[in-house]
Amino acid sequence: MKAGLEVHQQLATGKLFCACPSELTEEVGPTFVRRLRATSGENLRVDRAASLQAERGLRYRYETGPANCLVDMDEEPPHPMNEAALDTALTLAVLLDARPVDEIAVMRKIVIDGSNTSGFQRTALIAMGGHLDLASGRSVSIQSICLEEDAARRMGEESGEVTYRLDRLGIPLIEIATGPDVRSGPEAREVAEEIGALLRATRRVRRGIGTIREDLNVSTDGGQRIEIKGVQELRLVHEYVEGEVRRQEVLLAVREALRARQAHVGDPGGVDVTARFSDIVQGPLSAASRHEGPILALALPGFGGLLRSAPGSDERLGRELADQARAAGLRGLLHSDELPNYGVTADHVAAVRADLGSGPDDAFALLTDRSPERARGALRRVAERAAAALDGIPGETRDPLPDGRTRYSRPLPGGDRMYPETDVPPIPVTPERIARIRARLPERPSARLARLAHDHGLGTEVVRQVVYGDLEDRFEELTGRGHSPVLVARLLTQELPAAAPDGGFEPSPATLDALLGAAESGRIAKEGIPTVLRGLANGAPSVEAAIGAAGLGGFTAQDLDAVVARVVDANAELVRRRGPESFSALMGDVMKEVRGRRDGREVAEALRRAIARGGRGPDAVGAA
Amino acid sequence: MAAPETSDPWDHLRALPMGRRVEISDGAGHTWTGTVVPRHELSGDRILPLKLDNGYNIGILIEPGFRVRELPPAPSPPTNGVSSPAPTPSGTSPVVLLTTGGTIASRVDYTTGGVRPVREEREILAFYPELAHSGPVRIVPVFDRLSENIVPADWPILARHVVESFAAGARGVVVAHGTDTLGFTAAALAFLLRDLPGPVVLVGAQRSPDRPSSDGSSNLDAAVTLARDGRFGEVVVLMHAGLSDDRFAIHRATWVRKMHSSRRDAFESRNAPPLGRVESGRVHLDQPAAPPASGPPRVDGPLDDRAVLLWMYPGLDPTVADRFVDGQRGVVLAGTGLGHTAATHLDWIRRRVAAGTVVAMTTQCLGGNADPYVYATGRELLEAGVTYLDDLLPETAYVKMLWALGHAPEPDGVRRLLRQSLAGEFLDRHRPAGAA
Ligand SMILES: [Zn+2]
Q1: Within a domain: residue A435?
Q2: Which of B130, B242, B263 is facing A70, going by the closest CB pair?
Q3: How far is the CA of A73 from the centre of ligand 1 (A)?
Q4: What residue ranges define each of the domains in chain B, with the CATH number in brackets?
């Protein structure tokens, strides 16, 4: 397999072509409505099909707010390009050993889905070439570094009107595209992490979910290029890549089987089999579910048994077909490999087979929709996709799903329609500017890793997690407040992620400061940190409240001694007989009572002392 | 033929025709492949603009040691060609669209980076293929100039085209015009055209039609609707009413002014709300407009352009102002506040009036009346012979001055015409905006 990545990182420099802040907001002010139309662009050409059909009637509503000005609303020409954003892109160019262009030409990339008020995205190629060196010793080539505007946020769609919020529009994005040099899923993740760390090293990037997005281009031998667009979860990058490879393997195996059987696709007009289902009362084909729409069948001769998953795999051709039906606006489809089921009986199946003249090696798909026209359109798409299965894997764009799988989204876009943004003059990239950037390069992640490991006496692996897991700022802040680097590293890399495995829990630095302080002062044991974090993740208003709710606080050294004395007394015979060797037997009993309330080392010492005293508790000592 | 090794590659490259594919090597391991595109007029020295295969343009500084290789041309993408006019339903009288250039009929010029007007009907139809969908539209190119280059001598020519259009059976006339001076042209047509049997609608665009978000398309669509369905006989301006593409304001030609350099809703009626609006393809008149005339329309010319417009401001040297009026028959002052000038200007104004120059006063506040009676300065100006023009916009007053000069040989006659209502330009009632 071959894979390449496109990393898109938002910058915190303020917007690219106006003076608005790079901030998202929940505050919504006035809205306005626009229509966009395909235009002739450079060569005086009109994409007439697009302008007259697809775009006619689509309205876009834009929500404005505190992060907007007339530029974002396409009511004022763009201002000169944000210098700090450009410097950041050039910094990346230098860090990646790419060759900046000598004069930047800002381009308009036509986008008429409404996500840009202007109908185009402003984008500029800043540098080409370069390479990213990985810890493994491998090197991945860099194709291009671009600087562009982020699009507006899509908030919803209702009766032909799509609503976008303009806060995100115009936030600078650095786009770094690698060559198709990535050889495995884990390597894809390593590349994403390395580029992410380089970008963060500039300290000019936005942070948090959605501020960095990856597009993954994956192709295998025999497959077309697949673009997985908009991956936000770095930890899933390798899963998407590996999942895509598995999907392509399954589909290529299906192709071989289809070819061996000389399978083909029936009439893409479909056959109306509605009458065969007059008695069906439940499931998606019931009259109530389909709102009296027709049921259409597509014959798939030779496809029998090949639409369902292969053993041990979740991938199947049936899902690919259903994705097409969904893309055409249907809820899905039923195929014969999964029938009888969903209210469809063996008799129904036999009746459809009779209508289609299908044999046992043949398959069929059933589609329905309240709109006969939409159902027919969907059936044509499903037929096309089934026919493509005989060739292999069609190139397409896929959406990443939260579970690490992907779903068909749309065909691969054709060449971008780009023409010059005439409102922005060309921007020279002078040797002086590059020299100034070279003189102020940020610390590279690898250097930072070595420095943190050295300064804090930490292992490389844990520091790697800190630097590449976007934790270095918090690490430096907390150690800067005097907390133990070991404790801080463990908190950030292990205990914090474990406290809320699903994410969404981001305690403030002050909270973490208070928590570490409680552990270091002995108010709670270090072992109690996960318990307090869980309490906070579940809504405790403060560290103190979480400690109180978990019953961890107020357990003094005296309380510990009392527990130890009780355990030793209860096992007096064992202690007398085995002396210090009774320690491990008793430690478990003591920990059962005091875990998280006192430090483990302190507990062990108290127990050893008590055992050495031969089972006489502190009271007895005091009495002697 | 390859260039000799010793020659400067820049000499070779700058002589290449646009569209030639080349490969450039810098000798340090970097190679660029792309198509030579026109240089931007602000590009640096020795910068070669190249369109890469991925669509991006970049500029490469060509140094003497660079190597250039010419490549065979890449296959060019198929062009859809320029569409031909849609067949127009017969039997209905058409709307005539007169084009003059301006953003609404401009395209990007990739050499200068600016926009340039289109010249031909087919180019306009290429931008607005849907133009004739709702009814017959005839396109008549008149000028191909950005509106900053329109001069007063053009206004009677345009007025004659309007008259001819009606004579040829037009239901209404749309004039596509650049927005910079659209207000001047609108006022001029209002004074020049008499007995209009239907609407004359001036329309423009604040965003060039080569961008998907251009307001040209929706403005033009609404203007054609207004010209076809409007039941009135006067000159109006139609532009966006707000930032949305679904509401358009109808402004009386003499009340309107461009009040913003870039917004879609830059045009405002001053002193009164717009006459009406076009919404969801329907015309709504909120105030009375001149009814359509039954007689044939005519051009009521000529204009005499021997007049100037002078903006008064602190520090304006009276001798400079005086010299500015040399050789003119009239001057419109955009005075401060209620229509004032510094007392230092009284002297030259008195002299000029005595010598037969018509001096008219408007307010640079662009709202409310010029009124000579409130302050002593006003009374002195009035005594000096200045003609106060109430709530006329300075630009409207200037255009009216040219018309009046063309219609009266004597200053008194000019002054009388200036004070007379000719095209609904004066408002005797100023209502508070947004009043309940
Ligand atoms: Zn802004």
Answers
A1: no
A2: B263
A3: 8
A4: 9-70 (2.30.30.520), 95-299 (3.40.50.1170), 307-430 (3.40.50.40)
